[in-house]
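Comment thread on ticket #2218

A.B. wrote:
> Attaching the input chain for the structure job we discussed in standup.
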Amino acid sequence: MVVASRTPAGEAGVRPGDVVLKIDGTSIRSEDDIATVLATKRPGDVVRIDVQRGRQRLTLEATLVVP
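C.D. wrote:
> Ran it. Output below, let me know if you need it in another format.
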């Protein structure tokens, strides 16, 4: 996975190789799940992203922007 540095995910600290587990408490199993969750959000919303990075679980926050 590529994470562009000037995107909300990149700015939040999501890195290539991170596995997204949840967004705002919703379990993520596919890219479609990510799109479904983000479709309910608006620019300016802050979302919590739970990721697995190696053996660590991290919670990151991203502020959404206009695509």
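A.B. wrote:
> Thanks. Noting for the ticket: The chain has a mean pLDDT of 93.
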